[in-house]
Amino acid sequence: MSLGNIFDIAGSGMTAQQLRLNTTASNIANAETASSSVDETYRARKPVFAAIQQQLLNPDQASGHFRFGQEQGTGVTVDGIVESQEELQMRYEPHHPAANEEGYVFYPNVNVVEEMADMMSSSRSFQMNVDVMNAAKTMMQRVLTLGQQ
Known about the structure:
The chain is α+β, with helices and mostly antiparallel strands. The protein contains 3 helices and 4 strands, in the order αβαβββα. The chain has a two-stranded antiparallel ribbon with strand order 1-2. A two-stranded antiparallel sheet has the order 3-4. Helix 1 runs antiparallel to helix 3 (112-146).
């Protein structure tokens, strides 16, 4: 693995965490949206990530020096966004404008505390990728100054 690959790996991590932050923000924004039916109610969304393997990108360099397992990872990709299948919240509020014939209102299956924990985790992961890029940049700058002395 060359030092230049670090920027690609950290960049893919930053992109993934940005998407995770966006879906978390969407979940929090829709946490209290009410609906009169199960089909129309917002459901919590979560991104699905997968590791990009080195041998898929470049089969000639699959045997690197920094090989920790069978396959060397070179970043992360987003496979998609899935909706949570947890049960929706059903509340008896007969005077609510979105209440159905029986007086029930359906609310999303969004747990705001869990979403805030996800937001903190993704924010910290994003910052860690920024720190990795800054460290790699500093190392590259120091390598360039070696020849000047």
